[in-house]
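Entry
Fold in token form

___
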Amino acid sequence: MKEYKVEDLTLLHINVANAAIENPNNISIDENKSTKLFYSLGFDKRLNMDAERVLLALFINVEFLDENGNSTGIIAKFTIQFEYHIRGLKEYCEVPQEVGTDTPVLMNSQMSGSILSVAYSTARGILYTRCLGTIMGNVIMPIISVQTLLDISEKESSKPENTPAVQEDK
């Protein structure tokens, strides 16, 4: 595999495909006494080797919990898509030799980590601004390691309900 060069990575486009905040009990900002947040995230990565493009969808759920750790029903669900160009993408990947195999394409871990890190950091800012002035208030996603992002992205089904979550006091 090719040695990692950050100059080969370009973020081309960001699309907020879904940004929904659910508040089924119509709790007002003043009534919301929740102090804990439950975060979950997942990834879906698609590669187009010929076009040297990577499309990464990041799925994020943020949910308010009551003092007993139960859901209040207040939840934000976001899907944010990131399109990257990677110069020499094929050189950063190991493609299975057998046609029709279910073996995934293996990408250079530094390149994969950069893609995930840029997406997650950007998504943190998007969520913060989208939640201001809503029942979610000033939600700030936690800082997590690149290794944690890689671990989540490598799960077979990386949707929010299948990923480790971070619970923290607000």
Remarks:
- Strands lie at 9-22, 36-48, 53-65, 71-86, 93-94, 106-107, 165-169.
- The helical segments are 109-131, 146-153.
- The chain has two helices and seven strands.
- The longest strand covers residues 71-86.
